[in-house]
């Protein structure tokens, strides 16, 4: 086999299989958690705060200052995801060809600069331009972090770690709401409060990106925080993932396999349907709370508890998912809680503000469901080109859903926005059915593979057979090409 087709993990281990003690594995894991997780958690918190800054600014005077009317604010929420969709496949290819850490870091610097430029806008056209470009650069972060998590952690460690960095969306909601609440009280500054918000968030992101360019590793082989022995252990401990650490050769056969794998399109369908409500809520969250009868400043403050629910659910459901090694079950439970929240916002009269807020906060559990689907993609999609392709399809559908979402909240439906709330409840219910379909597809395929393995009469205890299977785990093969692989449910 051409060496260029092999994963760097196979080259780094010299093709040998090294026994790693539980103590050594745990020691290296702690070191990875201590150095890598904070990097991912911080930047994911920053990117969500940056993306959500439009939501906060809607209650800080941006509509009046930039003369936004009717549908224009809704389109500001949607155009961000036009940039996402435009750049997702190019960024998939670049992830395959460029060092992951450096490519991510450059994009962080660029989106921070674009966010700061929001403060210089004075009309709808300027905001549309900056929001679209911001979407281009932020399109790298989620698929990049899914790839990084799969490169560094075992299958039964990934849900919790992904929950940690995705949960930072909730932290960003809490902190962002409080910062916006404080800035909204500024009345004597030469700059409008919403402009200060964009400058503050944008410049903080630029500084973060510059640091990451120096420190963020591309993979285990150039991690500054690991010595040579620890790098080999870090690679060896993920062998049973049937994945390596990232081959930079683009393999068209893996791309086309991803296109004909039904799971790819089920993941995409899930992400599209689930993120239509998410897009509406992300852009109109403050407006929804405002529709319950709270004033603008109070609505900013009351956005914070939703962040706490988001964080808590992304810690709780992934923990259970890793413990029981079941993704779709706990993803489905989380999305049903979100569906219940949408139903409560529909049936409860506007005068009962407390129960309405409770329903709104329940919607935040939807993020935990999406987290576990991304873990499912990471666990079940083998082959580096195939993995980044499936991730891209899922993220494009995520962006399309978030593009559509703000359009479900029309100014003509104010102040109740009943149509938007009904769509939230209905689509979360449909999403649960898609999860059930994914589960059944994987159960059926696992049973088929079990039967084929029984018929083949291959002795899995034969040392030569075992050695060949272990070697194949670092050969950048897909899940279709790995008959001994079983799909996580």
Considering the protein shown, what is the CATH homologous superfamily?
A: MFS general substrate transporter like domains
* CATH fold-type name: Growth Hormone, Chain: A
Q: What's the gyration radius in Å?
A: 23 Å
CATH architecture: Up-down Bundle
- Spans where pLDDT lies below 50 across 5 or more residues: none
Q: What pattern of helices and strands is seen along the backbone?
A: HHHHHHHHHHHHHHHHHHHH
How is this structure best described in words?
This protein has one domain (19-238, 250-472): Growth Hormone, Chain: A (Up-down Bundle), CATH 1.20.1250. Helices cover 73% and strands 0% of the residues. It has helices at residues 8-12, 22-57, 62-65, 72-97, 100-117, 124-138, 141-152, 155-183, 193-215, 228-236, 252-260, 262-291, 296-302, 304-324, 328-347, 353-362, 366-380, 384-404, 418-456, 463-472. The two termini are 32 Å apart.
Concise account of the structure shown:
Belongs to the major facilitator superfamily. Allantoate permease family. This protein has 489 residues and is an all-alpha fold. The protein contains 20 helices and no strands.
